[in-house]
Amino acid sequence: MSAIIGLAYLSVGMMLQTAILSRIPLINGTVDLILIVLIAWALQDGLDEWEVWVWTLVGAVLLGFVSKAPWPLYVISYVIIILLLRQVQKKVWKASVLLLFLGIALATLFQQSLFYGFYRFVYTVPLPLNESFLYIIVPSMVLNLLFAFPVYLVIKDTAEWLHPQEDV
Question: What pLDDT, on a 0 to 100 scale, did the predictor assign at position 138?
């Protein structure tokens, strides 16, 4: 059931991201709604590990196929981001909402830096680092942080519906 709901959420998120949200940039940065959905899902309590990884891989592949960027970059970046977040959540930090905002900020920085490096050094596109940081990475981070909490609430309700926990 979780995989079907995940596919529906990720498909709708991908459509919103590619059709609407990509047309509303802040300077040159855009929202990565799939990243936000995946991080919000990964931070929910009571999920099986396979559910998190199915959502992550499906989201990365879906977005990779509709994006101009090579799809392995999405798979690599999303897997590393979710792996690190799950480890931090298990071993260090249980406060999901705080970790959500910190995770989204760092994940955006990591993913955008990975894409910058790829385009700069593989495609040899002359992208100045300071302009890329100020005009793409920081605005993308701000937009992702603005969308983080509403998406988190929807995902949290879905996780509680799929995996009800008994009150103690």
Answer: 94
For the chain, which ranges sit under pLDDT 70? Answer: 166-168
Measured at the CA of 34, the angle between CA 86 and CA 105, to 5 degrees, comes to 60
168 domain-assigned: no
Alpha-carbon distance of 11 to 66, in angstroms, equals: 11
Q: Which amino acid is at 93?
A: W
Residue 24: predicted pLDDT: 87
Domain that residue 39 falls in: 2-162
- Tell me what pLDDT residue 38 has: 92
Residue whose pair of structure tokens reads 């499906």 in the numeric block:
58
Domain count, the chain: 1
Q: Is 97 inside a domain boundary?
A: yes
> pTM for this structure?
0.90
Helices (H), 20-137: 33-42, 49-66, 71-91, 96-121, 129-132
